[in-house]
């Protein structure tokens, strides 16, 4: 059976499509199994249609982590965060990505496909997949996020 930690859900809208294709290629070379929820071309799509199935799968713990991207990273992150147990962080540099894991236990990384260098994005994904949550006082705060 495939190591669960190496199985990652990924998706984008048309604004993040090129970055998604780049990340899939690079991460597969590193031994990750990417489950691609779309989109599958640069044709215009509505990001909620693409991200809701992925976010549901993370919410149901079918995946520990997901990577999502649209043009700005905003819309797709907003839709993902509507799901119970999902903590999607919009990040654009490495330190911020580290903090999203250490302090917020983010389980989805959202990337701005039209505003980020692809090699930086790859480094951010590596950091996201390999940084542990610190717990402690941050655990208490994370537990307070889901109010309803
Ligand atoms: C698509 O043009 C663009 O609006 C979308 O990728 C994203 O940036 C929305 O937040």
Short description, anyone?
By secondary structure, the chain is α/β, with parallel strands linked by helices. It is about 40% helix and about 15% strand.
Description:
With 148 residues, the chain is of the alpha/beta class. The chain is 42% helix and 16% strand. It has one domain (4-145): Ribose 5-phosphate Isomerase B, Chain: A. It has a five-stranded parallel β-sheet, with helices on both faces. The model has no long low-confidence stretch (mean pLDDT 96). The protein binds D-ribose (RB5). Residues 13, 15, 47, 70-72, 74-75 line the site of D-ribose. D-ribose (RB5) is lined by residues 13, 15, 47, 70-72, 74-75.
The end-to-end distance, rounded to whole angstroms, is 36 Å
Number of helices: 6
Classify the secondary structure makeup into a structural class: alpha/beta
Q: Considering the protein shown, what is the CATH homologous superfamily?
A: Sugar-phosphate isomerase, RpiB/LacA/LacB
Q: CATH topology, anyone?
A: Ribose 5-phosphate Isomerase B, Chain: A
Q: What is the total tally of β strands?
A: 5
Shape: globular
- Binned, the helix content reads 40-55%
Q: What number of domains?
A: 1
């Amino acid at each position: 059976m495939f190591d669960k930690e190496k199985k990652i859900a990924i998706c984008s809208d048309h604004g993040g499509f090129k970055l998604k294709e780049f990340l899939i290629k690079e991460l597969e070379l590193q031994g990750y199994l990417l489950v691609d929820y779309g989109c599958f071309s640069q044709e215009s799509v509505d990001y909620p249609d693409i991200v809701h199935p992925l976010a549901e799968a993370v919410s149901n713990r079918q995946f520990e982590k997901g990577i999502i991207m649209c043009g700005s990273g905003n819309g797709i992150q907003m839709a993902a965060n509507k799901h119970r147990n999902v903590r999607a962080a919009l990040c654009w540099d490495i330190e911020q990505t580290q903090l999203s894991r250490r302090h917020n236990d983010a389980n989805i990384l959202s990337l701005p496909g039209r505003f980020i260098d692809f090699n930086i994005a790859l480094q951010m994904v590596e950091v996201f997949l390999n940084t542990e949550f610190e717990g402690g006082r941050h655990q208490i705060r994370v537990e307070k996020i889901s109010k309803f």
